[in-house]
């Protein structure tokens, strides 16, 4: 009996405590920089696409929501199309961890409601941003030993010049 | 006033007829409730609001709910009503019907000889009822309390018995 | 007694319905307050029109009668629930001059009778739905409400004996010197608990019991028929609160402010208590409910009647 009255009293006193509700659309919650939200494709510092369409993200994706096709131009690989079905995406971040070039990244944004389900399928145009995302200085093509126009073999960062097999010098 | 009394009397009669003609037991009980409510209105119009209220509280509000409760538990179906139809042979209903007809005739015969006090009857309050219950009718109250007490003891005994068996 | 009886007969149900609708919003806001959140606060000022929005939603929902249900009784049940609650308000004297039949000489018995008939709404809804959860809810409701009606009546006897009348108007005027909440506090507690059980509100909402019976007796109901059950429940809360105000808290009497304001204030306080009980207490088990009723509240109310009678006897003798 007394316990019941105490319960009533304690519950009543909660009227004077702070409310924990965040009034969402007016009052935005703080999202940390590494929050796993909407997926984007970033560009390297030169403004070129980072994605080399290695398909590792599509393999890592547990719900198979990523689809892409490789294309090649002057030795550079890039995705011909890159499609993420956000109606399936579970925002696990595995694609970001799998990506060898930091191209695919998750952002602190989750406001992507749509009235029609097909509108949740994002194409490459929707995914590509013009910036570098979380890794501003990294450029895959500058460190990779693959020759591209404007960078011959041996000119990459941390790369020694290629050995001349026809020379007899050690 | 006269019209209201006649109307509620008619509803009582119709309700009673519906009670004995319904197939579904719950419907019959509902018509019985209607009958009791109409009867309560008759009581109220006759100047006995206390009796009317008790009629609704005890009969319509408690006893009939228990009826519905039991019928809900029994889950009667088609075979039960067929079996019941078998029980209704002329040999079973002829006697009661004859007696009821006799009673009806008696009622019709006495109808013209009613005492002609057309004045509105005095309002019978709870106080009057209480005074008469514990005055001239105290023996009846005591007998009823005997009955209730024995019922209480019996139900207590049955309940205990079941508990021990388990 | 009323200057315009017909007008008040027409107006009272409308006011009660509006109040009950409003109460759905009040309850959700208060529950939110006590659970450190907001509750509905978007539609209109402070979310006030949430009740209206809910009403519109209910009105436009498909009004479905299950094919396995007993059609007539299925439709009848919510109507009974609504009618009995609204009828009970007829005898409640809001102020000395308003109310429909405030000084009906068996007013209190009339309220009890209507509450007794109110059981049918729940029981018939459970039976007519022809589904096991609804039936279980209906059976629980029947047993619970019949049990609690017994000592609801007995708990009122103390007040009736002290005031010497069944008329609610006389009972209020008998409280001019002292509210009955002081001499009759045991009766008040028993009546409050029985009232919660009668309106099947938490912590006695076993007939509904969402987590064990779906929604209990109204599992199969949808649309406005469900809405009627819903509104009837809230109107029932208002009714019990108004009765507590009339019988124990001195009705419209109070200093300075006009009577109707006092009545509304007292009734509102009891309604808030009802909602607080819902916010704080968990649902009882069925055997606990019955044990509380028959082993605690019934003896308590009988003792109350005996004590009141003894005191009255001694006072009249001495």
From TrEMBL, chain A:
A molecular function (GO) term: oxidoreductase activity
UniProt keyword annotations, A-Z: 4Fe-4S, Cell membrane, Iron, Iron-sulfur, Membrane, Metal-binding, NAD, Oxidoreductase, Quinone, Repeat, Translocase, Ubiquinone
Domain of life: Bacteria
Known catalytic reactions: a quinone + NADH + 5 H(+)(in) = a quinol + NAD(+) + 4 H(+)(out)
Subcellular location: Cell membrane
Amino-acid positions noted as binding [4Fe-4S] cluster 1 in the UniProt annotation, renumbered to this chain: 51, 54, 57, 99
Enzyme Commission designation: 7.1.1.-
Location, primary (coarse class): membrane
Membrane topology, from the record: Peripheral membrane protein
Amino-acid positions noted as binding [4Fe-4S] cluster 2 in the UniProt annotation, renumbered to this chain: 61, 89, 92, 95
Cofactors: [4Fe-4S] cluster
Cofactor stoichiometry and binding remark: Binds 2 [4Fe-4S] clusters per subunit.
Entries under Gene3D superfamilies matching the protein: 3.30.70.3270
Keyword Transport: no
Domain 4Fe-4S ferredoxin-type: 41-71, 80-109
SUPFAM superfamilies the UniProt entry points to: 4Fe-4S ferredoxins (SSF54862)
Entries under HAMAP family matching the protein: NDH1_NuoI
Protein role: NDH-1 shuttles electrons from NADH, via FMN and iron-sulfur (Fe-S) centers, to quinones in the respiratory chain. The immediate electron acceptor for the enzyme in this species is believed to be ubiquinone. Couples the redox reaction to proton translocation (for every two electrons transferred, four hydrogen ions are translocated across the cytoplasmic membrane), and thus conserves the redox energy in a proton gradient.
Entry similarity comment: Belongs to the complex I 23 kDa subunit family.
Subunit annotation: NDH-1 is composed of 14 different subunits. Subunits NuoA, H, J, K, L, M, N constitute the membrane sector of the complex.
Name of the featured protein: NADH-quinone oxidoreductase subunit I
The organism of origin for this protein: Acetobacter musti
Gene assigned in the entry: nuoI
TrEMBL record, chain B:
Record keywords, A-Z: Cell membrane, Membrane, NAD, Oxidoreductase, Quinone, Transmembrane, Transmembrane helix
Protein name per UniProt: NADH-quinone oxidoreductase subunit J
Family of this protein: Belongs to the complex I subunit 6 family.
Molecular function GO terms recorded: oxidoreductase activity
Source organism of the structure: Acetobacter musti
Role summary: NDH-1 shuttles electrons from NADH, via FMN and iron-sulfur (Fe-S) centers, to quinones in the respiratory chain. Couples the redox reaction to proton translocation (for every two electrons transferred, four hydrogen ions are translocated across the cytoplasmic membrane), and thus conserves the redox energy in a proton gradient.
Catalytic reaction annotation: a quinone + NADH + 5 H(+)(in) = a quinol + NAD(+) + 4 H(+)(out)
Subcellular location: Cell membrane
Enzyme's top EC category: translocase
Enzyme Commission code(s) on record: 7.1.1.-
Signal peptide (from-to): none
Transmembrane region(s): 6-21, 28-50, 56-76, 97-114, 134-158
Automatic annotation (TrEMBL), chain C:
HAMAP family the UniProt entry points to: NDH1_NuoH (MF_01350)
Protein name in the entry: NADH-quinone oxidoreductase subunit H
Organism: Acetobacter musti
Keywords assigned: Cell membrane, Membrane, NAD, Oxidoreductase, Quinone, Translocase, Transmembrane, Transmembrane helix, Ubiquinone
Main EC class the enzyme belongs to: translocase
Subcellular location: Cell membrane; Membrane
Subunit (UniProt): NDH-1 is composed of 14 different subunits. Subunits NuoA, H, J, K, L, M, N constitute the membrane sector of the complex.
GO molecular function annotations of the record: oxidoreductase activity
Similarity-based family: Belongs to the complex I subunit 1 family.
Gene field: nuoH
